[in-house]
Amino acid sequence: MPTYRERVAEDVYMFTSGLYAQVTAGVIVTSEGCVVVDTLPFPQETRELRAFAESVSPRGVRYVMVTHYHADHTNGLYLFPEAEVICHKRCRELLMKLGQRGLEEAKKQTPELAEVQLRIPRVTFDDTATVRLGDKTITAIYAPGHSPDGAMIYVKELKVLFAGDTVMPVPYIVGGDVQAMIESLRKVRQLSLESIVQGHGEVLLRGEINEVIEGSIAYLETIQRIAREHVESGQPRQALARIDIESCGKSRIPLGGLVQSLHRANLFYLYDQYRAERARQAREVAA
Question: Domains in the chain, ordered, with CATH?
Fold first, then answer.
């Protein structure tokens, strides 16, 4: 499937991968050049995005702002050699620690990634970082949960948020922190928004944002309760497989049905965490 481009607002465009999990990236056009948010998983997709940015601005791409270190959002950074790349400090650390090994493994499985080169961002931030370029003010906001390094990118003048994987059709917290994710979703509620570009999937418009964010928080609270109840009652991990996503308040339709697999992985991840916590408490009592 080809890469899909959608105009989100004046001067703001979303690109969606047609090859992997509806991953999104963005182009923000200013009077002084473009800011790109994330890249797409495969080189040919990111080249399409870059060609578009260069076609709409003679200054080309000035900055790339990264929402988190996962390869589906960072594989294409090397295709912007003239742009400054900005990310959270943990993102840089994780790319330095895990990026090359992960890329080498991915290349073994996916020949289309053969040319991809790991690029380590040079500019990092702790809590927020703001780029003022031409007529746009674009702020990166630390938002961990999906991953330890998560960030959201806010276009102030247009009230558009590139939420990265903080906002997805179903929150995904494997490898992350569920409480941090809830806090990051609460940060989204504090912003004045016209639209949200999710890290995967479709754009959210103003009228649906509150319902989606509240629904995601409720979903996370529900799966925490279910996983903890299964641990405390001594039920086996596999018993969670019967808990479908609809019973936790989310639809199974988005992302071509992938959300059900993400949901099951969330439950297993929390179960393992709570079981380890319970075992640790038992050891402390015995001691």
Answer: 4-206 (3.60.15.10)
